Amino acid sequence: MARPTIEDVARTAQVSKSTVSRVLNDSSEYMREQTRSHVLAVIRDLGYRPSGVARSLTLKRTQTIGLLVSDISNPFYADVILGVESIALAHNFDIFLCNTMYDPQRGSRFADSLIDKQVDGVLVTTTSLSDQFVVELVSNQIPVVALDWTPPPLDEKVGVVISNFETGIAEAANHLVDLGHQRFAHIGGPPHIRTSRRKREAFLGALRAHGIEPANVVVIDGNMSFASGKAALIELLALAKPPTAIFAADDLTAIGVIGEARTRGLQVPRDLSVIGFGDVPFAAQVMPPLTTIALPRHEIGRIMMTMLLDLLHNSVNLPNTITPMQQVETQLFIRESTAPVKKAH
Amino acid sequence: MARPTIEDVARTAQVSKSTVSRVLNDSSEYMREQTRSHVLAVIRDLGYRPSGVARSLTLKRTQTIGLLVSDISNPFYADVILGVESIALAHNFDIFLCNTMYDPQRGSRFADSLIDKQVDGVLVTTTSLSDQFVVELVSNQIPVVALDWTPPPLDEKVGVVISNFETGIAEAANHLVDLGHQRFAHIGGPPHIRTSRRKREAFLGALRAHGIEPANVVVIDGNMSFASGKAALIELLALAKPPTAIFAADDLTAIGVIGEARTRGLQVPRDLSVIGFGDVPFAAQVMPPLTTIALPRHEIGRIMMTMLLDLLHNSVNLPNTITPMQQVETQLFIRESTAPVKKAH
DNA sequence: CTGAAAGCGCTAACAT
DNA sequence: ATGTTAGCGCTTTCAG
Questions:
Q1: Which helix (H) or strand (E) segment is B185 a member of?
Q2: I want to staple B271 with a disulfide (CB 3.0 to 4.6 A). Which of A66, B169, B266, B293 is the partner?
Q3: Which residue is closest to A225 within chain B, CA to CA?
Q4: In sequence order, what DSSP letters do the residues of A113-163 get, joined into one string?
Q5: CATH class of A6-58
Q6: Which of chain B's residues have a Cβ under 8 Å away from the Cβ of A50?
């Protein structure tokens, strides 16, 4: 037989739907204990479960958020998701996971879906090509908090958390320079991704502070994967004067570089220093353990969700002329994939 | 101003709601092209988006499924999720990701949530302690397809996909025996997990076929993580006669073992052979590349979702006396973490 | 302290 | 070819 409704409960308990609704939401404490417990009993007997859908329709609230990530198989996101989850669950929110795979097409498709499903808000940890779908979301009254994204001036309910790449990357550059390196390469993320550009600029900028001209550092576009690290290294080794130090925009890429180096007979860090970005759990497990720039992934998730909750709570439009913003720091973890440059012989 | 409703569209287009609804669902092709395009225009002008919630309420269908995984940070699941997604998206289903962290509490909490949200079906890739929440789901008319779970006899709409651990694990055992090993250890997953037990039995069984008594192989319970691999190895090395070959129920564990071995001055595979399970992408990147048992993760995801779709489609109860079941195979990938046993000196 | 009734936004007969 | 109407299951004034 079909799922019982509130009506069924009301009828068999000989009360009105309102009463049932009241015991469900413990609103109006004023109720005969007898009534309450009787209704409760009936609910249990019938195995009644309120319909979230109906509830959402009347309440105009779904207790659900959307979470956009670029690539769920990148361990970076796993922790962010965990962070989001930790605070979402505590507030009884469920999560629609949307995995864009760096594809704007998929991004809009998900945005559409989230709008249709009427999520209460969305978290965007991926900013591909266009801001289009973020705009689409907010213009449909859906609060958004985005990671590493500077919102256009005309905002509705949006918040942002910004990672301070610059300091961590500067530490990395300094470290490499201190080690005596002079020939550098950078393997970036997909170039249309905002953060790829920011990381590159940060690295080139830090190097220039040491007198190394951007024109002299080789930059290759990768795509945040083992494969792209391998491919990039092959390309770099073909150069007349290959770099002695590589900064990859992503740990996966860095690990790919290390692996490829080994298969080509190069030893990291003796022959080549490499620094990653992200400090994913594996970074410490590979051989040699990866020197990398850490981001507080879990915290990022928590902050984002918390910020969203704030946005949701202040639904009584406070003057949102200023968009909430929070910054998280990055930090270099020196392990064993970097070493002094080999003496030229 | 608030989100426009179908009513608004109808009014400003001077037609009835039904008409609008019709153009939305291109049902009834019989409609004056003029009407259709006019309505479409109004829809565009108003920026109207149908409410998925209202739609779900009347249709009793949410176009949403739940996906239960044990640990989203385990790369094993990333691919399964991708597989599920690939076919879910094509059929316009969205996914509620539920990350149980091997915690039955969280499991039931999610089950409740999924029931309330009225998902159309759920995929369970995690079977912790009790089958309780699977039962809860199906008894609420929600179709379930589960991974590596033998359903109780009295089923509603459930499907299962079973991984044939046995063959892959037997290959692994044979491989180790061929290499001359005689002292074995197994580091399992959480013991209350069904699959942990199955893997252990498979390993012990395969070994016994070679005359090695189960009593002689050390079994340690782990929890599918680097840390548990490290801890287990420490324990094993404290033994009077430490094993020379270890089969870990999970790649993360195996990688943890290798890492710990290195920090304790042991060389893998010279001093110790280790085999993992899962063949996660990292397995091939660590040093030495991990010999491991592969599962068709992506395919598992696809099969599960496909099966669910079938269940959903045959909502006109076919005699579901037999529950759909499909088996996937496992296979040993020999890489470099296994080698002939060292000669005793 | 509890009930009646309206309404949330949409679809699906059933008219016309 | 299009309009009318009756729900879908719940919450929430407003009465009593």
A1: strand B184-188
A2: B266
A3: B281
A4: HHHHTT-SEEEE----S-SHHHHHHHTTT--EEEES-PPPSS-SSEEEEEE
A5: mainly alpha
A6: 116
B90 touches chain A (CB under 8 A): no
CATH superfamily of B62-163+296-328: Response regulator (3.40.50.2300)
Bases on strand D under 7 Å from any protein CB: 1-13
Most B CBs within 10 Å, among A116, A266, A297, to test the B interface: A116
CA-CA-CA-CA torsion sign (A304, A306, A308, A310)? negative
Nearest alpha carbon to residue B84 among B310, B306, B325, B302: B302
Residue pLDDT tens, chain B, 345 long: 678 999 899 889 888 888 888 888 866 567 788 888 888 999 999 999 999 999 999 999 999 999 999 989 888 999 999 999 999 999 999 999 999 988 888 888 999 999 999 999 999 998 665 577 888 888 888 999 999 987 776 567 889 999 999 999 999 999 999 999 999 999 999 888 889 999 999 999 999 999 999 999 999 999 999 999 999 999 999 999 999 999 999 999 999 999 999 999 999 999 999 999 999 998 998 889 999 999 999 999 999 999 999 999 875 555 556 778 999 999 999 999 999 998 654
Q: Using an 8 Å Cβ cutoff, are B174 and B206 in contact?
A: yes
Residue B113 in contact with partner chain A when CB distance is under 8 A = yes
Cβ-Cβ contacts under 8 Å, B281 against chain A: 73, 226
Binary contact (A82, B62; C-beta < 8 A): no
Minimum-distance residue to D8 (CA–C1'): B58
Distance, Å, B21 CA → D13 C1': 31
- Beta-bridge mates of residue B148: none
Beta bridge partners of B188: B221
Question: What are the tokens at A60?
Answer: 């105009």
CATH topology of domain A165-295: Rossmann fold (3.40.50)
Closest Cα of chain B to A212: distance in Å?
A: 33
Comparing A62-163+296-328 with A165-295, is the CATH topology the same? Answer: yes
pTM above 0.85, yes or no: yes
Strands A94-99 and A64-69: parallel
C3 C1' closest Cα residue: A16
CB < 8 Å from B in window 234-273 of A: 255-256, 259, 262
What are the structural domain ranges in chain B? 6-58, 62-163+296-328, 165-295
How far is the C-alpha of B38 from the C-alpha of A325, rounded, in Å?
A: 43
- Chain B closest CA to A253's CA: distance in Å? 11
